[in-house]
Design brief:
CATH architecture: Roll
Structural class: mainly beta
Shape: elongated
Strand content: 35-45%
Radius of gyration: 18 Å
Strand order of the largest sheet: 6-7-9-10-11
Number of strands: 11
Number of domains: 1
Number of helices: 2
CATH topology: Structural Genomics Hypothetical 15.5 Kd Protein In mrcA-pckA Intergenic Region, Chain A
CATH class: Alpha Beta
Distance between the termini: 42 Å
C-alpha cells in the first residue's frame, strides 16, 4: 500500500468531505530517509516527479560547517546529535534532519540543509 499525501477523507467532526477521488500518482509519498552517523558514507539517487532526481543521504560522519565570525566553511566530523526538534526520539538514534543540533569537533552546529533530499549536511555554528 502506497503512502498518501492527500487531505484526510474525513473532517474534524468525523463527517466525510463531499468530492473525493482515489489515490493518484501525483500525491504519492515515500518513507523518510532517517540519515544516521556512520564512518562509511552512503547516498542513493531517487527519481522524482518530472524526471528530476533527489540524492538521499543515508549515513555520513562529515558536515560542512559555516562559522559566522570568520565567514568561512570547514569540514567537521560529527560526534553525535545533541537535539532534534523534528522528533525527540531521533536524538537517541542519532538521526539527523533539518534543524537538528549536532556536536562536531569544532563545536555545536545547527543543520540548515535537508540531508534526506539534498544529499549533504550543511550546518552553522551555534
Amino acid at each position: 500500500m502506497a503512502l498518501d499525501q492527500q487531505r484526510s477523507k474525513r473532517k474534524e467532526t468525523g463527517a466525510r468531505y463531499k468530492k473525493q477521488h482515489g489515490k493518484k500518482k501525483h500525491s504519492i509519498g515515500r518513507n523518510p530517509t532517517l540519515t544516521k552517523i556512520d564512518a562509511k558514507p552512503a547516498k542513493i539517487d531517487i527519481r522524482v516527479r518530472g524526471g528530476n532526481t533527489k540524492i538521499r543521504l543515508l549515513r555520513t560522519n562529515v558536515a560542512n560547517v559555516y562559522n559566522p565570525k570568520t565567514k568561512k566553511y570547514t569540514k567537521a566530523k560529527i560526534a553525535q546529535v545533541v537535539e532534534n526538534p523534528g522528533n525527540r526520539h531521533y536524538v537517541r538514534a542519532n538521526v539527523m534532519t533539518k534543524g537538528a543540533i549536532i556536536k562536531t569537533d569544532i563545536g555545536n552546529a545547527k543543520i540548515t540543509s535537508r540531508p534526506g533530499q539534498d544529499g549533504v549536511i550543511n550546518a552553522v555554528l551555534v
